[in-house]
Amino acid sequence: MTLREKWRIIAQTLTSVPNPAERAEELRRLAVSLAGRVPVAVGAEDREAALALDAEAEILQEMVETALLAATPRRASDDDAYRQAEMALRALSLSELRGVRELLLSMNGPEAVVVTSELAEQLGMTPSVIPNGLRKLASAGVVKTRSMGSKGTYVRILNREITRLLAQTAA
């Protein structure tokens, strides 16, 4: 399937879903699917095409996330979500806040599998700092985590206000 055919599928999906929030979510799933199906390249041209497809899928995913936020109406529960995220962040130590901030803001989309020990090493922290911070956020209900053994930790953001607040905090 060529890149042009994949974009045609995306355009058809966009117009076939009447609800803007559902449309954005469907496009997000499609972007993730496209990013995951980048072919294993053999020749230099194939590699360039695969990298271009991956880059375009990432751009599409960012656009979809923005569209999903814009399509979601503001409700009183958003204020509750903000307060929940704010309280969760207050429970973190400074090093946990720094580690969790780097982790959550580096995620492409609302879920990812991350190796927290590698990130902690890059940030010059002990390996337990980031998992401890994630545990506190999970107990506050803003993220969901699951250990995947040597593959890393599955992290899903349940409250999008957490990323907004983290983006506003100083590094």
Molecular structure report:
With 171 residues, the chain is mainly α. The protein folds into two domains: 3-71; 76-168, Winged helix-like DNA-binding domain superfamily/Winged helix DNA-binding domain (Arc Repressor Mutant, subunit A). Helices cover 67% and strands 8% of the residues. It contains eight helices and three strands.
List descriptors.
globular, 171 residues, mainly alpha, 8 helices, 2 domains, 3 strands
Roughly what is the average pLDDT, rounded to an integer?
77
Tell me the major beta sheet: 3 strands, antiparallel
How much of the sequence lies in strands comes to: 5-15%
Counted by DSSP, the helix tally is 8
Low-confidence stretches: 38-42
* Number of beta strands: 3
Please tell me how large the radius of gyration is.
18 Å
Helix and strand pattern: HHHHHEHHEEH
Q: What form results from the Cα inertia axes?
A: globular
Cross-sheet strand order for the largest sheet: 1-3-2
CATH superfamily of the largest domain: Winged helix-like DNA-binding domain superfamily/Winged helix DNA-binding domain
Helix share of residues? 55-70%
Q: Which class do the helix and strand fractions yield?
A: mainly alpha
| CATH-defined fold name of the largest domain | Arc Repressor Mutant, subunit A
- Named at the architecture level, the CATH assignment of the largest domain is Orthogonal Bundle
Termini distance? 42 Å
CATH level 1 class label of the largest domain = Mainly Alpha
